[in-house]
Design a protein that fits this description.
By secondary structure, the protein is α/β, with parallel strands linked by helices. The two termini are 30 Å apart. It has 8 helices and 6 strands, in the order ααβαββαβαβαβαα. Strand 4, helix 5 and strand 5 form a beta-alpha-beta unit. The protein has a single domain, classed as Cytidine Deaminase, domain 2 (3-Layer(aba) Sandwich). Helices cover 35% and strands 21% of the residues. A 6-stranded mixed beta sheet has the order 1-3-2-4-5-6, sandwiched between helices. Helix 5 packs parallel to helix 6.
Length: 228
């Protein structure tokens, strides 16, 4: 894993609807073509506030087998309580190619250093898949030394959940005080409304895919078995 990343685009550039190789991603009728277009060349960490519709529909889909989904998308909400008791919230998203730093590490490298040690932070991640072993270890270490941070991670899929070392890493996350759960259909709708680009002057309703509830229950059962 790379030790340090650099921003590769501004928020406007990160939310551009075209793929990096210049091809149009608007046609979703052919899943294989979409997968081919989503597999972009490696690039550095991208930051922004809203991600393209087609990236959400492909990368966040809670399928059992995540073939072709070689990126991690991390949408975050930060709630900070100031000294007067007032709560302020901010949000954004990070995405990666696995050739560079993972999105989880990018959050700790770029966002957490801006935190005021005197304030309390409640952070929620909406992540396309659960952390890898290395990222889980980084999360544990960060929570251990950042006492004013509480972290809730909601994931669309479980990454390599059958591997013993991955199961052990998820258990350690729980023991470290990190709350981890599978995204419900309502959580995907929240991402759609708050993190996905909408047409100017038009907000389309979230349309759940056919097996969204079934796959949620599948992963929820797997996670419960791992963490029990």
């Amino acid at each position: 894993m790379a030790q340090k990343e650099e921003a590769a685009a501004t928020a406007a550039e990160a939310s551009a609807p075209a793929s990096q190789n210049g091809e149009d991603l608007e046609n979703l009728d052919d899943p294989e073509k979409l997968k081919e277009l989503i597999q972009l060349p490696p690039f550095e960490i991208v930051t922004g506030e809203r991600l393209p519709v087609n990236y959400f529909k492909f990368q966040f889909r809670n399928v059992e087998y995540s073939s072709g989904r070689n990126k991690t998308f991390l949408c975050y909400v930060i709630e900070v309580q100031d000294k007067g008791g007032q709560v302020q919230a901010s949000r954004g998203y990070l995405e990666d190619e696995h050739a560079t730093a993972h999105a989880e590490e990018a959050f700790f490298n770029t966002v957490v250093p801006t935190f005021d040690p005197a304030l309390r932070y409640n952070v929620t991640w909406y992540v396309s898949s659960s952390p890898c072993v290395a990222c889980a270890d980084r999360i544990i270490k960060t929570l251990s030394k950042t006492k004013n941070l509480r972290l809730l991670i909601l994931v669309g899929r479980l990454f390599m959940w059958e591997e013993p070392e991955m199961q052990a890493a998820l258990k350690k996350l729980k023991e470290a005080g990190c709350r981890l759960r599978i995204m419900k259909p309502q959580d995907f709708e929240y991402i759609w409304q708050n993190f996905v680009e909408q047409e100017e002057g038009e907000s389309k309703a979230f349309e759940p895919w056919e097996d969204i509830q079934e796959n949620f229950l599948y992963y929820e059962e797997k996670l419960a078995d791992i963490l029990k």
